[in-house]
Structure to design on (292 residues):
């Protein structure tokens, strides 16, 4: 849109700056480019957006709410450090080569085709970098796999196109557990402040500072239960139980979506997890049990 047509951009410029100081076309274009790139780079490098749901023009991650989400973002930032160093080095080397070995500057090419020392250096250095990256990466991978003695189990079942949640820890009888479906709220029924395509009628309520086991499956086709702020993305496979763990560090409302193309309404089966204090959670459970 910034570069679409000069008249539209000029109109924007006129609307944006006060009358009396209408900038010339050149100044307006320059200012808008600066605004665009400054926003882009701040978003890119200060990459935690302070939110638990996607935001317009968001480039970075959502605010982490679990140790695993924190770990994923830290690993990303660590790897980005190496990536930037490598990028700068390779670009520098490429430009230097183009500059010094251009045929105008260097008409007679060198006859060297082999350099043992150099070859050892360029083999060993990357493998060291890979090892440095591998250590925190494996540590994170195995800690994600760990189920720490859970005090509560949530079962998530994907359907075309909604989620069913089961809290089976409280069942006194066979059919007495807390079970409910969670549908997206259609656009026409949204209330002020609710998020379009992300709000659901029944939220998952979970306590903070508690080790939770989440068991994920599907009833019809493949789905994927994914909540970015919690660092969870786990496939829901029919006939199979996938297991992951969650430890909420703070209260909040965390939004996610199905992340496996599962049919026509794949984009319309969002996930909302509400992290609450333990007391509030227990109240919620007892209310649910009374309702049954
Ligand atoms: Cu799905």
């Amino acid at each position: 849109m910034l570069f679409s047509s000069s008249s539209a951009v000029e109109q924007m410029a006129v609307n944006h700056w006060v009358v009396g100081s209408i900038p010339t076309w050149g100044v307006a274009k320059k200012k808008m480019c600066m605004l665009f790139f400054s926003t882009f780079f701040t978003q890119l490098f200060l990459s935690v957006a302070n939110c638990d749901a996607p935001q317009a023009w968001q480039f970075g991650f959502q605010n982490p709410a679990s140790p695993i989400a924190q770990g994923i973002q830290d690993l990303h930032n660590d790897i980005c450090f190496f990536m930037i160093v490598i990028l700068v080095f390779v670009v520098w080397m490429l430009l230097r080569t183009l500059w010094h070995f251009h045929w105008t500057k260097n008409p007679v090419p060198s006859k060297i085709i082999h350099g043992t020392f150099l070859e050892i250096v360029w083999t060993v250095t990357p493998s060291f970098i890979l090892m440095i990256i591998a250590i925190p990466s494996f540590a994170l991978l195995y800690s994600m796999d760990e189920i720490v003695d859970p005090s509560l189990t949530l079962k998530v079942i994907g359907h075309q196109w909604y989620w069913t949640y089961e809290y089976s820890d409280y069942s006194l009888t066979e059919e007495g557990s807390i079970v409910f479906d969670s549908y997206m709220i259609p656009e026409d029924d949204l209330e002020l402040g609710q998020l379009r395509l992300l709000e659901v009628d029944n939220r998952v309520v979970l306590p903070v500072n508690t080790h939770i086991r989440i068991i994920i499956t599907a009833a019809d086709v493949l789905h994927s239960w994914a909540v970015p702020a919690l660092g969870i993305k786990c496939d829901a496979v029919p006939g199979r139980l996938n297991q992951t763990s969650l430890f909420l560090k703070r209260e909040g409302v965390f939004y996610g979506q199905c992340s496996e193309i599962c049919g026509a309404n794949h984009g319309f089966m969002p996930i909302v997890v509400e992290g609450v204090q333990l007391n509030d959670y227990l109240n919620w459970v007892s209310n649910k049990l009374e309702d049954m």
Observations:
- Confidence is low (pLDDT under 50) at residues 1-21.
- The beta strands are 152-159, 162-167, 178-182, 204-207, 211-218, 223-227, 232-236, 242-247, 252-258, 271-276.
